[in-house]
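debug: dumping io for the single-chain case to check the tokenizer round-trip. Nothing else runs in this session.
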Amino acid sequence: MTGPSTPGRPALPAALTMGEPAGIGPDITLSTWAGRAGNGVGPFFVLGDGRVMAERAKLLGLEVPIREIGAPEETLAHFAGALPVLPVPCPEVVPGEPRGETAAAVIRAIEEAVALTLAGRASAVVTNPIAKSVLARAGFPHPGHTEFLAELSGRGGVAPQPVMMLAAPVLRAVPVTTHIALRDVPGALTRELIVRIARITVDGLIRHFAVARPRLLFAGLNPHAGEDGLMGHEDEEIVRPAVSELAGEGIDARGPVSADTMFHAEARATYDAAICMYHDQALIPVKTLAFDEAVNVTLGLAFLRTSPDHGTAFALAGTGRAREASLLAALALAAGQASGASGAARALG
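debug: decoded output
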């Protein structure tokens, strides 16, 4: 894990992937750099195609000089005057029109960002949104970023357990199961999985968010957390024993509680992270409360990974209507990692 910068040495830049080039990744990257004087963003370099970035800047009417670099170490020398791009060549791109031919470049950018971060040459991996369906049609075997990053983190050994956290100033939520069909969730839930996810969440809250003693609240899988078995047995047979095990370890863990009562303001004040049983149970409240501010953070890896908490938004690509607030928050968290956990905590309030 890359940590705080060594005294006397400048902080490392973040490695930002271009993401799906026909989506809004290039747009929000360009507008983030263009507003650097006012938004306080720290240095970053882009793994992508400089030609694509220059064409998108022209389309958007943004004055963003592109500087192709040969190594991350050149970022600090050029960031003030140009957007540093570490070249990953990409075929022709039309905004809003995804093409399978670009999949190889998207994947390569992620691989290179991870390799550079693991080598201590970047503070964190920051990923712009990808189009999962486009990659899948090109033979990409993973259901999303999270699973691919886990494989890259564990190459040469056992792949770690990745934990997806959606983090915003008003709420942090973690889904125990992620990119699987809803009908498969009950069969995938186990006490061991819930305990493992919770332990990694606690470690992440301490390391990246400066929460000294994290408080976890667990959502029930079923309506009313099962209503004592009337609406399903998973909460009593799987979730509650997991919570009891964690509490026995000294972790501040409560639940399961009915998911429909745990996301209002008064309830949110009682915990530091909500542990949810499936993807949408975690993502819907975060995106409803803080769509433009939330960051997707992957915990449990050998490096910190952050990402905007939104998709490719093909309809907005090249229009100038895409908002960069979530990317800014993701980059701020990456910069916080370079200066310690307290900096990361400040990045998200």
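debug: round-trip ok. The longest strand covers residues 163-168.
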